[in-house]
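User: Quick sanity check before I run a bigger batch. Here is a single chain. Can you write out its predicted 3D structure?
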Amino acid sequence: MDNPTPQVGPETERGGRDGLYGLTTGLVGAVRAALADSDGERVRALVAPLHEADTADLIERFRPGERRRLIAVAQDVLSGDVLAQVEDDIREALIAEIGAERAAEAIADLDTDDAVAVLEDLDDPQREEILDAISSEERAGVAESLAYPEDSAGRLMQRDLVALPAFWTVGQTIDHMRESGEDLPGDFYEIYVIDPRHRPIGRIPLHRLLRTRRPVLLRDIMATDLKAIPAGTDQEEVGHVFEQYDLVSAPVIGASGRLIGVITVDDVVDVIQEEAEEDILRLSGVQEPDIYRAALRTATGRFTWLLVNLGTAILASLVIYQFDGTIDQMVALAVLMPIVASMGGNAGTQTMTVAVRAIATKDLTTANVLRVLWKEVMVGGFNGVVFAVLIGVAAAAWYDNIALGIVIGAAMIINMVVAGLFGLAIPVVLWRLRIDPATAAGVVLTTVTDVVGFLAFLGLAGMLLV
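Assistant: Done. Predicted structure follows.
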């Protein structure tokens, strides 16, 4: 039997109901066309079935003028969940466009952690204007979370949770949750058992609660292996705790040990991705994502590290300048010397990238750093010998000069060993000095491998060839 002809309709435009990702190029084009026609009804019909994350991605793909038209014809698509998903720069522009009152309405139904995510990166006047527009109860919770340090557990937690005393029964607990209705958290996986001082002493997964008979006391079925997280804990540490112990949620405690909130795994997934993204960006000298930022602000943000790189390049050039007479006598040195520096830089970057990530995941510690350091030196030496033979033979054949091949081979071994040594040592030293190794390790390492590479190659050439 012939296959039926595919029908083009709303489901096709959205990529099909069974698709894992609801945003397609066809849908983006359809929404863009509807915006051009100021067809608000069509825009809402296309966007309404999308998940909030897909709607946020859709908005990010639009130019500023198209975003303004979207707000004009279909402002109701900007729910609080959508505002929480879009990139920071775009969120600021959207909130400025819709105004504080409309933004306050959008975030009113968000959990505390999501509301904080929307507000924390806004300018102070814009943030205060929105806080003044939301209810006093909601404002108190959000303001208290904002008082905690940036990127801390206090900012990450949500305040809605279920916490009950140990002498309650399973039946009382189930009845209480049924009666609470809308007051329960939107998503939760465990209830927490607390002492009279409101300190967490145990946890009960919902599946265990539902499988237990009603007369049983909570203290008899609670697990006591709590990983209570202080509110001031850095979010990177929170991510490590969740990863290490396979948690789906964890209680957050204040300075007195009282239970004040809960962190759930959906937020930790975002944290892990954010921290990994931050390390990658900093390794290349970019402080934060800037794909949606204006060109001038992007250029300004990248200027500082480019200036630092200029300084390190000048330092490497000064090393070369010391051997200008040697290079004048043997032009082949100028042709071959970038190879040594480049290979050392690449080898060092490999080691440095692994080291920075190992520090972040706590796989590299003071207990094993010397063993790992020795391993990286051996790796550098092994690769150095292999590539020394390759480039040495090639250089000797190219210039018909065996001594030149020996010199570049020896320089290659020296620089590869140094690259392995400093590729690990630099991030570790910065880490011990409480400096983010992803921030400065790349610049320092490039300088070291360039200087050592040029010194080794040109120095040996000056002694043995000229």
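The mean pLDDT is 84.

User: Great, the batch can go ahead then.
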